[in-house]
Each structure stands twice: as structure tokens, then as C-alpha cells.
Amino acid sequence: MRKGFEKKGEAADALREAIAEHENGRGVLKNARTFGVFFQDWLERQGAANWAKMTTEQNSKRAAYAIKLFGDVPLQKLTPMALEQHFGTLLLSGGRKTAEHPDGGPLSPKTVREIAALVSQALDKARKW
After folding, report:
1. Alpha-carbon span 67 to 64, nearest angstrom
2. Is residue 129 classed as helix, strand or coil in its secondary structure?
3. Average of pLDDT values for 91-106?
């Protein structure tokens, strides 16, 4: 945050410059942290502070699907469209590999919604942090 401008015009110029930097990506701190590293850290903090043991175990299982699928993607590269595509993949072939489903069986819509909700909670926290 910038303060101490002598004239209103200087403040307006600084605001325009800050907006331009943000739109060009220069005003955002670059962070190469992957979703998987962040998500695992968030799960440990969130689980220890807020969840019962059984909930923590279930959420760890749900998280494993997301980490396996897009855990190596940098946080800042995750887009809503990419997430939807990943969740679509989970619906089609996110489950266990079997003879019938060599690429992985489909996950139920309910399971995918639960995974998406968990990812959404984590990403909300990522924005705040």
C-alpha cells in the first residue's frame, strides 16, 4: 500500500500504475509452490485444528485424488477451467484401475463433489494467505 501523496493527482497516477502492474502480472508475487505442496500443508493445519479423526482420514483420501491428478501444477497456474477439466477426469477415470477400466474406473459424482469442495476450501485459504 502506498501513502503520503501531496496531491490527489499523484495518488491517482499511482493507482493507475498499480492497476496496470496487477493486470500485467507484475504486481502479483510470483510463487512456484505447487498445489500438492500447498494442499498437503493446508490439510495438516486444517485437520489438526478443526476436524475429527474420521473426517481427517476421509479428507486425506479425497485429497489424494486431487494431488495425484494436479498436485504438480503451480498454484498460480490453476484456473477454474483447468480444475473443471480435472474434476471431469475424476468422473470418467479417477478411480482404481481394474481389468474393466485399465485407465481407472469412474468416481461417483458425490465423491467428485466432495473432492471439489475440499479443493475449493483450500484455494480460498490460499487466496487469503
Report:
1. 5
2. coil
3. 91
CA 23 remoteness from chain centre: 21
Domains in the chain with CATH codes: 1-30 (no CATH), 31-128 (1.10.150.130)
Q: Which of 120, 97, 92 is nearest to 108 (CA)?
A: 92
Q: HSE-up of 72 (CA within 13 Å, CB side)?
A: 2
**Alpha helix stretches (DSSP H) within the chain:** 8-23, 35-50, 53-70, 80-93, 109-128
Task: Let me know: does 93 contact 129? Beta carbons within 8 Å.
Answer: no
Q: Locate 7 and state its grid cell.
A: 496531491
* pLDDT at residue 28 tops 60: no
DSSP state of 74: B
- Looking at residue 27, what is its pLDDT? 47
Distance spanning both ends of the chain, measured CA to CA: 17
Q: The cell 503520503 sits on which residue?
A: 4
pLDDT at 18 over 80: no
